[in-house]
Design goal:
Blueprint lengths: L1 H23 L4 E3 L7 H5 L4 E10 L2 E9 L2 H11 L3 E2 L5 E11 L11 E5 L3 E6 L23
Parallel strand pairs: 5-7
Antiparallel strand pairs: 1-4, 2-3, 2-5, 6-7
């Protein structure tokens, strides 16, 4: 009798453990807008990580806020999270990391970024830097442009 009770208790505990593990998984995402590198952050050569927390109820993001990261990166990350939709049974509070990287040679015009998404836990956005558009820019040059000569 004790053996049967022991087996039943063991089976019950393993079922509870498996259920707890499944609840820790991220929910299945069914829609997400493509995140982009914020133009002003790219022009200012701002890169870094943003950690954000979001809450899902019935598959919809009902709250999203940045916990850390540069403001030029944090706001667009949170806006992107708000575009996410999950399977209708999804509930919970989750954390995501957005990593914004600037890599490669200067480009005269903005280029499409490389985007890696392991949703909804991690997003990496890599873009080449933009070359300054002024022709007379030199290190230490005055910000005010020179008058045109006719």
């Amino acid at each position: 009798m004790k053996k049967i009770l022991f087996v039943l208790v063991g089976a019950l505990l393993s079922t509870l453990f498996i259920s707890a593990q499944e609840s820790l998984r991220y929910p299945r995402i069914i829609h997400a807008d493509v995140p982009l590198y914020p133009a002003i952050a790219l022009a200012a050569r701002v890169s870094g990580k943003v950690e954000a927390e979001f809450e899902v109820k019935a598959g919809n993001v009902i709250r999203a806020e940045a916990r850390s990261g540069h403001p030029l990166l944090a706001k667009p990350a949170v806006e992107n999270i708000r575009s996410w939709h999950f399977s209708p049974e999804a509930y919970g509070t989750f954390t995501v990391i957005f990593e914004y990287r600037i890599r490669g040679a200067d480009s005269p015009l903005p280029q499409n970024p490389k985007i890696e998404m392991q949703l909804p836990a991690f997003v990496k956005i890599t873009a080449p830097p933009i070359r300054p558009s002024c022709n007379d820019c030199e290190p230490g040059a005055d910000i005010v442009g020179k008058p045109l000569k006719h």
